[in-house]
Specification:
Elements lengths: L2 H7 L10 H16 L8 E6 L4 H16 L3 E6 L29 H5 L3 H15 L5 H10 L3 E5 H6 L12 E4 L1 H10 L2 E4 L1
Parallel strand pairs: 1-2, 1-5, 2-3, 3-4
Helix pairs in contact: 3-6
Amino acid sequence: MSSESATADAPEEPTTEPDIAALEERIEALEAAVDTVPDDGPKSMTIIATQGSLDMAYPPLILASTAAAFGWDVTVFHTFWGLDILHEERSRDLRVSAVGNPSMPMPNLLGALPGGDALATWYMNREIADNGTATIAELVETSLEMGVDLQACEMTTELFDYDHAAFYDGVTTDVGAATALQHMADADVQLLV
């Protein structure tokens, strides 16, 4: 078979140029479909704060205040040691535990020695001050001003015998687990810190 007859029998290759008009119509249809999606309002987030050490007090407050800045409806339910974040006096004296914290810039053995936690706390507070990072008290106040619902667990408040007056002004008190669960079920984002 000659090469001329082989090419004559081969089907013609389709053109690879896109149909610009068809692509533009498809883009317009997709944009129109997006415009018809109902707006369910602002996103919502519920955070459960269970830890009250200095290093673990920052994540729920930073996430809450940032989400509130984006217009989200934010609830932070503080339970067990996380309740110390809302306690005005205790929140000013939160500590860092060096033992079992592999990210600390000191060996665990040093953290286990007497004064190890005090040293780790001093170091963390120095870093916070040197970097101009907001304090826990400032973050609590900022979160409250931005409309974040900072909630104190009713059971933990009773367990630790905390007086409601000891919490920052604006903290929602006497919130039970059932209420916290409902907030979590309704939220777009749920976090446990």
